[in-house]
Amino acid sequence: MRTRILISIFIFLCLVLIYSVLFVAIMLNFEGKNYSFVDGVYWVVTTITTVGYGDIYFTSYVGKAFSIIVMVSGVLFFFGFFVPYAILPWAEQRLRLVLPTEVKNLSNHFIICGYNRFTKEFCKILREFRVNYVVLEKNQDSVREALDEKIRCVYTDGSLTSFKKNGVENANVVIVGWEKLEDIIDTLLTLRNYDIRKYVIYGDHRYSRYLHYAGATKVFLPKSLIAASIARMILEEAQIGRMREVFGDVHTAEIVLPQNVSVSELESKGIRVIAACRMGRLEFNPSKDRMLEKGCVALISGRKDSLKKVIHEGTHLRLR
């Protein structure tokens, strides 16, 4: 901001200097009057600011034309350049509300680096589960947007001091979601001496190895997360992978096979294959030597513990 004001002052002084020299020359050559350079500065300043006391003035056409140029350039300079370039930004900065830089008395909380669409939705989930959190953001406009959304967000410069102010020593997890790779690496290196889980969200898988080297506990790819989330939602809606009690400890479940597997392999794990369906073809009690193809939907039954050994996270078949 100071630089803008200095540039404006420099341009104004240049205009005054040039116009003062021209004033003296025009007065001498076209008006026949001898004025000093100081008189020229005085006339230029009063004219360029449109004050115009009228004690010094031109009578020739050239002098009047020069006066018009000085007045018009003064209006253009002040209202077209100086005010929007220097005064308004300065006033906005002075009147701008002070953004928060820290949240005190946090413990076992999540520190989230970067405010974006993912962190916005993630914070809503954290609030539902009553998990303490704080979002660190480097862009002031983004901080204001987050605060308008009732998200606990602070302005940061990404330094270790900023992390300490927001309780990194007592934090449970740090989620690094900056958009720029250099910001992510800088944060990981800044927190390299802290024994805390650091999860990184970045879209380019080619840098996953380097992010691990920099200190990331795990790197998540947004596209993979979205695909897995949608798949789980669809499978849950279709009741795929959800165990249902038949009687006692016996349960049934429908699973989608992620690979080719024989009925005998499933039975060796204490699982009974009741039926299998693929491409609209339904087969009950398939034989032990029957090879079930990848993508086949199988209805299986067995004890709850046996099913848990096969079904992973409620939707995925785990054979290894």
Topology:
Layout (H helix, E strand, L loop, with lengths): L1 H30 L5 H12 L12 H35 L14 E4 L3 H12 L4 E5 L2 H9 L4 E3 L4 H6 L7 E4 L4 H10 L6 E5 L6 H7 L3 E3 L1 H16 L6 E4 L2 E7 L4 E2 H5 L4 E7 L2 E4 L6 E2 L4 E7 H7 E2 L3 E2 L3
Helix pairs in contact: 1-2, 1-3
Features:
320 residues; alpha/beta; Helix Hairpins; Rossmann fold; Alpha-Beta Plaits; 5-stranded antiparallel beta sheet; 47% helix; disordered C terminus
Give a brief outline of the structure.
This protein has 320 residues and is an alpha/beta fold.
Contiguous low-pLDDT stretches (5 residues minimum) are: 313-320
Percent of residues in helical segments?
40-55%
CATH architecture of the largest domain: 3-Layer(aba) Sandwich
Largest sheet: 6 strands, parallel
Structure summary, number of beta strands: 15
* CATH topology value of the largest domain: Rossmann fold
Assign the CATH class of the largest domain.
Alpha Beta
Could you tell me the strand content as a percent range? 15-25%
Number of helices: 11
Question: Which homologous superfamily in CATH is the superfamily of the largest domain?
Answer: NAD(P)-binding Rossmann-like Domain
In the residues, how many domains can be counted?
3
User: Biggest sheet: strands side by side, in what order?
Assistant: 3-2-1-4-5-6
